[in-house]
């Protein structure tokens, strides 16, 4: 094997680049003012050294990216419900399918109501169960004060600290009372024109967020 020691190699015309038609193997550092051509076979490129604008690519196979919200579940309940006085009442029950066994559940909800019953000793709740774990949450629940024959909105903004199993989650929304008496916070859930001719059919809307913490 021969060895050539030079400081500068140029093409035949003095300005052309030298062509290596059979390829070239380099040991050590290769420095250039620019590179062009396909980079399909490049490997082990440090991410910290990459700059410039990314092209429009499919990121479905990317890994190691933190995504706090894993999945969002939506439920809408648009049926008018007349409530009755009771110490512990379930108004709505439905299910959704939890995708991950490791995520926590956050919930936001807006519930339209009609005709406050002026019973301040009632406490709204949202209950979740996966068959093994059951949690009744009363934190993050609020409703405005209403007088008779008025509409109002009950809202939910809460987090469940329990890690529920993946699979079917049963949701129940209702109220109980502080003194175990027969009270109710409102007379109608999801009011419509039968309560006030100006009303459309109102609907309760629930969003459940599976969150990676």
Number of separate strands: 11
Radius of gyration: 32 Å
- CATH architecture type of one domain: Sandwich
Q: Report the sheet with the most strands, covering strand number, pairing sense and barrel closure.
A: 7 strands, antiparallel
Q: How much helicity do the residues have? A: under 10%
What's the CATH class label of one domain? Answer: Mainly Beta
The number of distinct helices, counting runs of at least 4 residues, comes to: 0
Overall pLDDT score: 84
Per the CATH scheme, the topology name of one domain is: Jelly Rolls
Structural class: mainly beta
The helix/strand order is: EEEEEEEEEEE
**Amino- and carboxy-terminal Cα gap:** 61 Å
User: Strand-residue fraction?
Assistant: 35-45%
A few lines on this structure:
The chain is an all-beta fold and 213 residues long. 0% of the residues lie in helices and 38% in strands. The protein has strands at residues 69-77, 81-82, 88-98, 104-116, 122-129, 134-137, 141-142, 151-160, 167-177, 186-189, 204-211.
Topology of this structure?
Blueprint: E1 69-77, E2 81-82, E3 88-98, E4 104-116, E5 122-129, E6 134-137, E7 141-142, E8 151-160, E9 167-177, E10 186-189, E11 204-211
Antiparallel strand pairs: 1-11, 2-10, 3-9, 4-8, 4-10, 4-11, 5-6, 5-9, 7-8
